[in-house]
């Protein structure tokens, strides 16, 4: 979810007219009048802080290069199109912020990997500061010694959790789809509910039935945060706008208050019931890591609590980590699953090949599990190809140069913002044959074995790579394999195939579409998550 917030900010800023936009226009007009009256230069890239100078979009005072970014295309496509004119590496001004745009793998590799620590900083933005209590999370926090300790704690906590809760969620989702078999159904709501349940189980050991008030609250506040960020924008480019009436910020604060009330309640419950032994969930693991459970062993997060407290890991870090699990884990995973189903509706031959592979490797007597993944290379290649052709985060979270460095032989000053356009990298014909085509085979060699091109980076790379990548990949595998083992998916009668262009909100998501489900095997006609023979008994 969180990787596209710059794109959302710009698209919102350029594509809507609001009171704050009008206010900004008046201020800009005043600035321009004053500047013109003084004989100042109003067009050009002023004193570019790169040597030798990078190609730069035209820039106006206050507005920067925003006028050059206007258009009907979403940000990732506009940045790529501008790259055809200015080259794969160029500069622009986001309002007052000098920003370098990276459209090629060669330069992205420098930023993310070769000089990853030099470009590992994050800009402070109004919305993210609100969301994360001043950067107490992983994704938006600046690159500091405290951040590295926090990230290590979270990464070690994630390694404690396996597939059990995910298999239960897959089974419950299959029951939902079975109930509407043969009918046109929008797969979005049941997928969102299933993925939310997975995150709730991993974070605070709660599993909900459809309609549960607490689950509804979680989904509503998460959706509210998503929508307010998608409708905001200018305040992150011009932070001083936060001092003016702003309905979007007001709603965002309201949603955050609802979120924090629920998470504080769960945290207090966990503090009371916390015990020596294996953690039940992420909150347990983080609390044990924070306070130092020195009497237990094996988790990799215990026994370091006093040091963590000395370094500044506090309850806000625990809460914001839990909040980020929802923000980053629900929207991105459910959207990727929607893209998978959308492309399979367009390519039924691919769906059939995946199902034949599942029949050969797993059969129909049990659910696919993590040990099957090594033997299902084509299914894995389908997931990879979907993440390549429709990256849910087409523009990564902005990086900041923490020191004077360089990209492509151009010196880049400390404090420069860097935008990595993952869409352009994943659609670069220099690295991908016919990149506009959906071809899972590109991730297999001639003998059907997996290959992973170095320019494939759906989770980013380097020090800022997504900390939840392993969990996300496992979740995608279990959902896709479980669904395609049991159902065939077809376009709903009389309804067009899904639009594959997508819409950029907080993530790049497909437009709503409908499909119908049919069972592949009569043994799946009576699904019940409590009695199903397809989930190992120890996970129930």
Automatic annotation (TrEMBL):
Residues involved in heme binding: 466
**Which compartments is it annotated to reside in?**
Endoplasmic reticulum membrane; Microsome membrane
An example GO CC term for this entry is: endoplasmic reticulum membrane
Q: Does the keyword Endoplasmic reticulum apply?
A: yes
Q: Which UniProt keywords apply?
A: Endoplasmic reticulum, Heme, Iron, Lipid-binding, Membrane, Metal-binding, Microsome, Monooxygenase, Oxidoreductase, Steroidogenesis
Q: What is its EC number?
A: 1.14.14.16
Protein's membrane topology: Peripheral membrane protein
Q: Which PROSITE patterns match?
A: CYTOCHROME_P450
Cofactor(s) needed for function: heme
Which ranges does the record mark as transmembrane? Answer: none
| Pfam families associated with the record | p450
Molecular functions per Gene Ontology: heme binding; iron ion binding; lipid binding; steroid 17-alpha-monooxygenase activity; steroid 21-monooxygenase activity
Biological process terms from the Gene Ontology for this record are: hormone biosynthetic process; progesterone metabolic process; steroid biosynthetic process
Q: Which family does it belong to?
A: Belongs to the cytochrome P450 family.
- Record PANTHER family: CYTOCHROME P450 FAMILY 17 POLYPEPTIDE 2, STEROID 17-ALPHA-HYDROXYLASE/17,20 LYASE
Q: What is this protein called?
A: Steroid 21-hydroxylase
């Amino acid at each position: 979810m969180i990787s596209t917030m710059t794109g959302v900010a710009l698209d919102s800023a350029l594509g809507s007219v609001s009171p704050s936009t009008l206010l900004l226009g008046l201020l800009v007009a005043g600035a321009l009048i004053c500047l013109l009256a003084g004989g100042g230069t109003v067009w050009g890239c002023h004193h570019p802080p790169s040597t030798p100078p990078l190609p730069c979009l035209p820039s106006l005072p206050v507005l920067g290069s925003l006028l050059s970014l206007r258009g009907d295309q979403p940000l990732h496509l506009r940045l790529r199109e501008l790259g055809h004119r200015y080259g794969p590496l160029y500069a622009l001004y986001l309002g007052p912020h000098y920003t370098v745009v990276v459209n090629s793998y060669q330069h992205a590799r420098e930023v993310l990997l070769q000089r990853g620590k030099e470009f590992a900083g994050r800009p402070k933005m109004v919305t993210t500061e609100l969301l994360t209590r001043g950067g107490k999370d992983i994704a938006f926090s600046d690159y500091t010694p405290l951040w590295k300790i926090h990230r290590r704690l979270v990464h070690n906590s994630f390694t404690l959790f396996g597939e059990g809760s995910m298999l239960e969620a897959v089974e419950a989702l299959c029951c939902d789809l079975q109930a509407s078999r043969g009918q046109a159904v929008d797969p979005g709501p049941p997928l969102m509910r299933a993925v939310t349940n997975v995150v709730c189980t991993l974070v605070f050991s709660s599993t909900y039935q459809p309609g549960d008030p607490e689950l509804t609250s979680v989904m509503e506040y998460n959706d509210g945060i998503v929508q307010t960020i998608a409708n905001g924008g200018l305040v992150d480019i011009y932070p001083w706008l936060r001092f003016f009436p702003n309905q979007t910020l007001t709603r965002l604060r309201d949603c955050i208050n609802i979120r924090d009330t629920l998470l504080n309640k769960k945290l207090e419950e966990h503090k009371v019931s916390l015990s020596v032994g294996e953690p039940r969930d992420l909150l347990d693991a983080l609390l044990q890591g924070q306070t130092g459970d020195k009497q237990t062993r094996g988790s990799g997060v215990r026994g370091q609590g006093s040091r963590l407290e000395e370094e500044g890991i506090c309850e806000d870090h625990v809460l914001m980590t839990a909040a980020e699990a929802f923000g980053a884990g629900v929207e991105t995973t459910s959207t990727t699953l929607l893209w998978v189903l959308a492309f399979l509706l367009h390519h039924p031959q691919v769906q059939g090949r995946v199902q034949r592979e599942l029949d050969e490797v797993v059969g129909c007597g049990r659910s696919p599990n993590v040990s099957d993944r090594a033997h299902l290379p084509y299914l894995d290649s389908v997931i990879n190809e979907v993440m390549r052709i429709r990256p849910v985060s087409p523009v990564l979270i902005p990086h900041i140069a923490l020191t004077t460095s360089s990209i492509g032989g151009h010196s880049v000053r400390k404090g420069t913002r860097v935008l990595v356009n993952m869409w352009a990298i994943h659609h670069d014909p220099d690295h991908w044959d016919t990149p506009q085509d959906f071809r899972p085979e590109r991730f297999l060699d001639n003998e059907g074995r997996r290959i992973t091109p170095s320019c494939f980076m759906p989770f980013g790379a380097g020090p800022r790579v997504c900390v939840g990548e392993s969990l996300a990949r496992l979740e995608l595998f279990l959902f896709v394999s479980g669904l395609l083992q049991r159902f065939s998916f077809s376009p709903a009668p009389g309804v067009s195939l899904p639009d594959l262009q997508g819409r950029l909100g907080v993530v790049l998501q497909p437009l709503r579409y409908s499909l119908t489900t049919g069972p592949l095997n009569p043994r799946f006609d009576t699904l019940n998550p409590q009695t199903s023979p397809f989930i190992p008994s120890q996970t129930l």
